[in-house]
Amino acid sequence: MSAPEGGPTAQRIRLDPDPTAAAHYSPGFRIGDLVIVSGQAALAPDGTTVGEGDFDAQAAQVFANLRRVLEAAGSGLDQVVKVTIYLTDMANFPRIVELRAEHFSEPWPADTIVEVRALARPELQLEIEAIALAGGRLVA
Length: 140
Prior knowledge:
GO terms for molecular function: deaminase activity. One of its GO terms (cellular component) is cytosol. InterPro entries: RutC-like_sf, YjgF/YER057c/UK114. By secondary structure, the protein is an alpha+beta fold. It contains two helices and six strands; from the N terminus they run βββαβαββ. β2 and β3 form a beta hairpin.
């Protein structure tokens, strides 16, 4: 089924190198002024895991990856309106709350945090997906 003439266009966000290519998914899409970002894990641009066994190192890489995808779409962490955070251990909940305050600002994004049994690789401890604006502004 094709989009109606003049309907919205979803533009794939492109990264180089693109660690998602081997797994056959996109880092995200920009639809008008809306950016939808796939879950970002602690993967280096070459696809290797960063910070095995170190939650803070993994979190730093996750936020760096999230920033990279958002910036490739013309957005940024300050434009995020919704995040879903997946943790493999809720013992890290207090730390992720601190990290949200370091990486996001008011008005805070809508947020869901869930504990999952596992992520795509057994050594991964968290993953964050996001929805953001591009070119707009957030109002408290």
